[in-house]
Specification:
The protein is an all-alpha fold. It contains 26 helices and two strands. Belongs to the nucleobase:cation symporter-2 (NCS2) (TC 2.A.40) family.
Length: 524
């Protein structure tokens, strides 16, 4: 038997991911683009509905208020996505709501000055205005860090090794949005999971007119089939005598969105009234803005790989963060109850259907804006049960996490130093936030519990985030532990050429601003 050659048992590192049908600046036909954009819109509905559905009732809001917040959030998501794909990083990323803002928002809701208001609607409006004020002030963090290029300077301390746990935990860190939610209604969650995997993976070679229709539109097809099945179960009375939690998770008519939604409603700034400002609320919200910054940094790196682009240069990444800060400012002005971050599930969908086209995401932004104004139609799609979204998240979050792990190919994983940094960062990135979550569930407050509420919110928000903990641990260890003699092991020779815009000729193709704007904002 002939000896195995080294090239037969190893795979050379690749700057760009192979096997994609369309990359960042190539586009499918317009018919496909519209259908794919609608698919991204459907996926973005999950977070856009979940966050207001949880927060609005706690604030004292009615079903009408919940619908208005969902519409407003989708409207602002569409605007922010267009801004990011045109003037930000220009990567095919949907910019949606963020769970990172839940801790400071809940802290504002529990503020005694609002809790003592007896009229529920007045309490809702007062709380909403306080959240708006905190978001407006906190948005300045990303605007300053981004447009001043401070984040670009900070990113020079990142390496492929340091980014592995950050990007991986952008996906893995959302495990509680996956099967834990599927389990609340297994009769529709598990069929959705099985059907989506079957269509996107096992039947991906089935083609109509040379288009892999099942792989490319697996989300739309599986959502249509299982949604119809869920509606059949609801209409047949299968959940009539089931517990309230089961009914809320499984029924297609429990959200009360369709009946409460107006036919036409255009969101506008300050529609809830003038924002109110409080220093303590703003400081707590700043922590969520920092968490959003870290999570988006990891998601941008993953999106660049799944769009078959080069890693975004430092100034492009910083530019994207600046525009994301503008997005959070818009969140505050319009009143969406949450800030902005890159939608991880939509990044995962780039890999699932192998379409990394920027135009597809811009079309999806158009759908967000359009359906947010046509309330009844948008509410119809928003009535999809949450376990169906969670089933898809199980796949898409996993894809994003695996993209993070793929950066290990540029490092030396035979180095004990690298094994230590990678392993400890991943473990602590999962373990510390889980401790904070479990502590909060038992004690009804986070581990940081002093008389200074803003300090509590700041620490609890930071350490609730897996990617943020991973970044702190990984970047600190990577830049202090034998860093002078380990540049090659860390992957720095490969990483160095992507630090500057002119370091690689492909950067101009992927990241140049439209309308010849680079004349006024020359890349560094």
């Amino acid at each position: 038997m002939a000896a195995t050659k080294p090239e037969e048992i190893s795979h050379p590192p690749m700057d760009q991911l192979q096997g994609l049908e369309y990359c960042i600046d190539s586009n499918p036909s317009w018919a496909e683009t519209i259908a794919l954009g609608f698919q991204h819109y459907i996926l973005a509905l999950g977070t856009a509905v979940m966050i207001p559905s949880f927060l609005v009732p706690v604030m004292g809001g009615s079903d009408d208020d919940k619908v208005r917040v969902v519409q407003t959030l989708l409207f602002v998501e569409g605007i922010n996505t267009l801004l990011q794909t045109l003037f930000g990083t220009r990567l095919p990323t949907v910019v949606g709501g963020s769970y990172a803002f839940m801790v400071p928002v809940i802290s504002i809701i529990r503020d005694p000055s609002f809790a003592m208001i007896e009229d529920p609607h007045l309490r809702f409006l007062s709380t909403m205005r306080a959240v708006q004020g905190a978001l407006i002030v906190a948005s300045s963090i990303q605007i300053i860090l981004g447009f001043s290029q401070i984040w670009a300077i900070c990113s020079r301390f990142f390496s492929p090794l340091g980014m592995v746990p950050v990007i991986a935990l952008v996906g893995f860190g959302l495990f509680d949005r996956g099967f834990l939610v599927v389990g609340t209604c297994v009769e529709i969650g598990i069929p959705m999971l099985i059907l989506f995997i079957a269509l996107s993976q096992y039947l991906k070679n089935f083609q109509i007119r040379q288009i892999p229709i099942l792989e490319r539109f697996a989300l739309l097809i599986s959502t249509t089939v299982i949604w119809a099945y869920a509606h059949l179960l609801t209409a047949s009375g299968a959940y009539k005598h089931r517990p309230d939690l089961t009914q809320h998770s499984c029924r297609t008519d429990r959200a009360n969105l369709i009946s409460s939604a107006p036919w036409i409603k255009i969101p506008y700034p300050l529609e809830w009234g003038a924002p109110t400002f409080d220093a303590g609320h703003s400081f707590g919200m700043m922590a969520a803005v920092l968490v959003s910054l870290v999570e988006s940094t990891g998601a941008y790196k993953a999106a660049s790989r799944l769009a078959s682009a080069t890693p975004p240069p430092a100034h492009v990444l910083s530019r994207g963060i600046g525009w994301q800060g503008i997005g959070i400012l818009l969140n505050g002005l319009f009143g969406t109850l949450t800030g902005s971050t890159v939608s991880v599930e939509n990044v995962g969908l780039l890999g699932s259907n192998r379409i990394g086209s920027r135009r597809v995401i811009q079309v999806s932004a158009g759908f967000m804006i359009f359906f947010s104004m046509l309330g009844k139609f948008g509410a119809l799609f928003a009535s999809i049960p949450f376990p169906m979204f969670a089933a898809v998240y199980c796949v898409l979050f996993g894809i994003v996490a695996s993209v993070g792990l793929s950066f290990l190919q540029f490092t030396n994983m035979n180095s004990m130093r690298n094994l230590f940094i990678c392993g400890v960062s991943l473990f602590l990135g999962l373990s510390i936030p889980e401790y904070f979550r479990e502590y909060t569930i038992r004690a009804f407050h986070g581990p940081a519990h002093t008389n200074a509420g803003w300090f509590n919110d700041f620490l609890n928000t930071i350490f609730f985030s897996s990617p943020t903990v991973a970044l702190i641990v990984a970047v600190f260890l990577d830049n202090t532990l034998d860093y002078k003699d380990s540049a090659k092991d860390r992957g720095m020779p490969w990483w160095a050429k992507f630090r500057t815009f002119k370091g690689d000729s492909r950067n101009e193709e992927f990241y140049t601003l439209p309308f010849n704007l680079n004349r006024f904002f020359p890349p560094s």
